[in-house]
Amino acid sequence: MSKAASGPQRTIIFYSRITIWLALLFIAGGMAVQSLQVNLFTQSDVDRAFANAMAEQMSHALSIRLQDTRRLQQAASNHPQTLQALREDNPAWRATLRQFLAGASQLRLIRRDDAMGLHTTLGYAVQDLVSRTLNGADMRLEAVQRNGDLHFYWASPVRDEQQRIAGVLLAEYGPAWLSQFQSGASQTLGQVVVTQYVDNDRSRGLEIFRTGKDAPRTGTLVTLPINDFWYLTYIPAEERPQLSLMPMVTPWVVVLLATLVGLFILVGLQKREILRNQLQLLTYVRGLSRRGVDEQPTFTLRLFHELAGSMQHLIHTLRPSVSTSVTSSRDNSRNKPDIVFEPVRKTPVSARLAATDKGLPELMVEEMEHEEPASVSQSIFRAYDIRGIVGQDLTPEITYWIGRALGAEVRERGFSKLALAWDGRLSSPSLSSELQRGVLEAGCHVISLGAQPTGLLYFATHELDTPCGAMITGSHNPAEFNGIKIVIDRHTLAQEELMGLYHRIKRGDLPRGEGQLEQRDLSPAYLQRIDDDIQLARPLNIVVDAGNGIAGPLAEQLLQRLGVNATCLFCDVDGSFPNHHPDPGVPHNLQSLQQTVLANKADLGLAFDGDGDRVALVDNHGKIIWPDRLLMLLVEDILPRHPGRDVIYDIKSSRHLATLISRHGGRPAMWKTGHSLMKRKMQETQAVVGGEFSGHLYIQDRWYGFDDGLYAAARLLEILSQRSQSCAEVFAALPEDVSTPEITINTDDVRKFSILKTLSEDAQLTDGARVFTMDGLRIEFPDGWGLVRPSNTTPKLTLRFAGNNEAAVARLQQRMKEALQRHAPELQIPF
Fold it and tell me: Name one Pfam family in it (predicted).
């Protein structure tokens, strides 16, 4: 017999055997992997527990060392002879205290009246530390980087007999103190990094020291506080306690091998039983069919017993003679009736469908009402907000559809609420009502904050349970304008994002819903937040001009809280702006402020724009201090606590900013003008402070990083209060060019871009200049610079010039004027 005819070679247990083997293999393998996971998780728990224990031990040790230094200095400042030395300026007692305070490299006893002017030698951070201590703030240690070196200062109050703070004991601790402090951190089994953070930003800080072995592993690093500002980060090394993996894996391997051996034995026994029963079955069937022997053997497997019974029945059935069977079958076939096959008639599909339709119920379709959005002009969607003429480009109906689109966009991005505020313009209440209606009908909830400055609206997106907001405001534009500033997920919408709302309206992507309205007054919390942050070192006498904008009432309340003696001009809200336009970037609008400062002999004057997100300053001589120089003052105060951080300034700002920022340890970055664009860049680079020439100031130190005229003004007052010099003297020490204010030339929204393109290609204009084209055209020469750019909010070109002297500025202006006359002779050039 050939191999092909011998039949299948696989037995009945072939597939069962394979299945069982694979199942056991998978189970055992899975258990082994699970044991590995358990082992790794256990190792991770051990790592974490070890890292936590080491970090807690070291942070506690370092904290004890700080507390020891604190107690010693407190005892020194409370000693009666310290008060006497403060009053009499006794250097002998200071020498005694230096021996008493281990690690102190320098001691100063500073009377309250002598506390101003420390910034000139010690920097603004130390000035701020002393001023806060004099105002009753808790004693604290602060590290300051100056000229590339770390200095450690601790200021403790010296109290008189009536327990009033008469002065400050300022101790500077040197390398010896740092070495003794650092000894509390273990230099084995990992790396220890101590960092100072003076605000809520944990992405960057000032590194105090780093010790121990480099640790490549970062999965189990632990960060714990040492005090309010210093944090210890521990990174374990590879020498940490290790678990052995083999003892946990080996039992599963042994079980797997034992299971496989047992399986082979059982399968072998099963195979032998099957073969024996198979032989018995064949012998029984052969005897039954040939000899008629009907004695069934004893089987050990039920399957073969049942097969034997079936074979017995089959053979007994087949015993009658074949002839009889054939005859019977023939007779039966004659008696059967003939079967006639008829063709099947197919029913057409159409007929079957018609028949089926008779039994279907009628389908009712509800007609949906089609909504036709109002015709919305694309031109109102500007570079960083929505803005247009009320009743022409921006009507209540158009504002409603913008609200529908905005509500849909907020919900699509995963949020459910929107904070809403508006300025004091006459058209703002009606526009805000329609925007609110649109947002609610989009299914988005609204928290109505009322008539408030833009800074408070931004504050709401950080402090309320929604990061989204909208502000109805025309900012500094004329009274007939109004607009909308929009924040989603704490990002102010700009450019393509604003155009996305326009396209959503055009394509009708405006789902309906039912939102809920909530009224909130956030002004007490907002004022309290600023009041808690600002500490003035001395009383100030100032003048405030709010230009009848929305910031006036809150500015009055804030200055009263801070203890400032303020004379308020036009702080009542009047949307018709009867006194002057609320744009502090135009010198004409600051004339009343300048005159009142001189008449009152005030320390300085402050001016806000229409929605309160910009600030301008006039010194005690009535001179306008342009905002790029206000940024310089903030840089000097903030950067020593944040070395290496970015500072952002717009293309209209002073050329001296880059040098000043670098000198104070920061990284200068010029960027495009516009509050949305600047804030986006601030977040992208994690910049600590930034500013625009228009008066938008962005402070990330102790604040949220958005532009808020009221908070920026409060920070400037805090810095100036810490100086013994007058406001004019403070700013005289900062670099300054001879410069022009911002100059505007009327054109139209299309022509302004084509003019700029032509000017950029004018080789005669740019010859010999360093050219910047990120936002308009800025040309820089060794003795000055000039800028022309299209306004993003109005149909104008804006220009500015600055240089070493009047002659340099005049030369730059003439060069730009000639280029404008060549390419746009229709323009009325005001210089």
Answer: PGM_PMM_III
